[in-house]
Structures are given as structure tokens and as C-alpha cells.
Amino acid sequence: MAASISSDVKLLGFRASPFVNRAQFALNLKSVNYEFIVEDTDNKSELLLKSNPVHKKVPVLIHGDKPVNESLVIVQYIDETWSDGPSILPESPYDRAIARFWAAYIDDKLFGSIMKWLTDAKDEESKAAVLEKFSESLGLLEEAFVKSSHGKGFFGGENPGYLDIALGCHLGWLKVVEMDAKVKLLDETKTPALAEWSHRIQSHEAVKGTLPEPDELLSAL
Amino acid sequence: MAASISSDVKLLGFRASPFVNRAQFALNLKSVNYEFIVEDTDNKSELLLKSNPVHKKVPVLIHGDKPVNESLVIVQYIDETWSDGPSILPESPYDRAIARFWAAYIDDKLFGSIMKWLTDAKDEESKAAVLEKFSESLGLLEEAFVKSSHGKGFFGGENPGYLDIALGCHLGWLKVVEMDAKVKLLDETKTPALAEWSHRIQSHEAVKGTLPEPDELLSAL
């Protein structure tokens, strides 16, 4: 598909942020060209402060002169604005509700566990507790994948959709935790469908090259 | 407008939950008849546990045999399913993004402050800190109202929409805090537009009689 002419699209962020990657995946899926403006968290730009005065956080999508904040809001905005590209949200209201439910779950529970591992879990007991939470969350997401994908390759069916983007963006940091914990979180035995999906989504053209490798993420810590 | 025939719609919840009220407002706005099934938080029903096995929380909307969880997901589901009724989300993708952004803000910051007041803020210093947060949040929401309402009566313009529902459901507990703190949070001087809006939304037919009064809420504590 030819890329849309969208030189008026800017994305403020940095590569190590899964939420920025999420916006990137959505733009890539829709073949929207955009200018990536790298933000320094220690020295936030005037453009960022003006565009997201409430949270002062990336990602910010600026379309024309209009800023959109919060990664899942951005993904929905992209889906609704470039509606001629492949659909990101499912079509039926019920499937959309299921996708929105799990996207919120991912950011609350799964990303919560990633943050806990990286910042709080220092002793063996708290590490074990976080790993237990990962196991619970990924088990539930395995079930959600099986139900949503209808035997096809992605949560969205034959093509990546909302949940592929919502979960896929966390795979880089999940690998960092796996390396650090020396355990396999996405496990061929316990979460076989998700383990296979994770290879599939990472080699998809909308994700490949955009999702940072663990080395790059570690250097951002 | 005649009520839709929707005897297959059930809402699991209890009146003191603002998130349950939110789903009720949306159903009322769309004139959808529903069965309200009262849940006891100390003794959750099998239907609730089966319908929301992940969070085990109300509200749950059951449409036919399909459960939908999480209040903002439910409101969007209602908007998309009964699409012949008045629109809840705005029409343009940008206005929808703005509405989704502020709805998330309301549940994070404003409801966060309500919870802090009710559970954590015991000494004068922490009470003052929470009141300061209320002032900040309501100031931002006043600005958002002025921008979104375009001089009309509601966030949604002439009729209540997504943010009217999202914020309106918290007005009962906000009154409880006002009574307890002996301060006016929605203040005619500091937040004149929101103060006026709060009277308008509470007397709207979709909200009136559904939003509990402070006495009823206090007895639920």
C-alpha cells in the first residue's frame, strides 16, 4: 500500500518507551508517514510541555496543530482518522469492548508487573511474588488470545489489531525481565499460543525495527 | 423517545458505585430498558464471578449472554450497540480523543482524590494536600468544559455525552467530600461553568433519580 501523505504528523517520544512504540506500530500499520521527534525526559521540550500540559508525558501525536495524548487514545485516534487503512479495532461492538478491556488489563497488570520488577522487586520474596503475577497475567492473556484470534495468527485475526499493538509494545521490556530473572515468561508450555504470537508480531513489518532489542532498553535504564 | 425493547439487558451493581451509575446514565440516555441486579460486595453472586472472572467487580453489563466489564468500556459498548439513540461519544476523531483523554483523567485524578479523602486523609496536612489536588483537577476540568461545550450546556454540547457521564457519576461522592470537608469544591467563583453544569446534569432525566444523594452514599460507607 502506498504511504499516505502525512508530513503534518509528528510523534514526540523516545524509543525505549513501550507506549511510544505502541503509537509507532499503529502509524506503521496504517502506513502513515510521521516525523519522530526525540524527547529527553530530563529536559522536556517546549513543544511537549505545550502539547501535553496535564501529564507532560510522551507519547504525544501532533496531527496538524492538534495534539493527542495517551497511547491507547492515540491508537484509537489513528484508527478513526486514517479509516481507509487496515482496521485496528475490531468491527463488532462486543469484540471492541473485549479488546478495550484487555488493553486496560495489559497496562494495569502486565506493565505494572514489569515496572515492579524493574524498580521495586529487590529481594527473593518480592521477585517471586512478581513472577507469580506475570504467570497469572500471561495465563489470562493466553486465554484471551485463543478466544480473540479464532485460530488465526493475531488477536485481531489474520492481521494485527488493537491488542496486538497494546501487548506487542511491551515485548521488549518483557525480554529484559526474562533475561534479568533468568526465566522464560512467554513459555512454549504454559503459554504456547502467545509464545508463537510473540515471534509473529515481532517479525511483522509494522513492528520490526521499531520495537527495541533488550540491549538498547537496558542502556536506557 | 420510546424505550428500546431490551429485556435481555442486565446490569450488575449497586447504587453507591459511581461506575455503576455511569453505566446507568448511558443506558438511560439511550432509553434502553434493563434489569438492575443488586450485588453484595461481601457476598458476590455466581453470575458476577462468572461474568467478570478477572476483576470480580461491578459494573457488569450483560447483553443477551455476553458480559461487558469496566465502566468506560461499557459506555462505549452502549454507544456503539444502540447507535440509533443519541450519540454519547462526539463525532470527530479529535473530539473523541479529547473526551477519552479527560475521561481517563477523571478516573485517575479526580476519583483518586475522592478515594484518598475517604480512606487515607486523616490528619490536617494530608487533608489539605487532597483538597489542593481537587482544586487543581477541577480547575483543569473547568477549562476542558469551556473548550468542549462550545458555550452550550454540556461537555457534549446541547446534550449530555461521554464526559458528562464520566464526570457526572462522581458528583454524589464529591458532595460527600464537600460536606465532610465543609468546603465547596465546585465553586461558583473558581469553577463557575462546572458549578452550573453540575446542576444541569443532575436534573437531566438520564441522571435524576439515578445518582444517589449524599445521605444514601454515607450509609453505604
From TrEMBL, chains A, B:
Location of this chain's protein in the cell: Cytoplasm, Cytosol
Record keywords, A-Z: Cytoplasm, Detoxification, Transferase
UniProt organism field: Oldenlandia corymbosa var. corymbosa
Protein name in UniProt: Glutathione S-transferase
Taxonomic placement: Eukaryota, Viridiplantae, Streptophyta, Embryophyta, Tracheophyta
Catalytic activity from the UniProt record: RX + glutathione = an S-substituted glutathione + a halide anion + H(+)
GO biological process, one term: glutathione metabolic process
Enzyme Commission number: 2.5.1.18
Role description: Is involved in the conjugation of reduced glutathione to a wide number of exogenous and endogenous hydrophobic electrophiles.
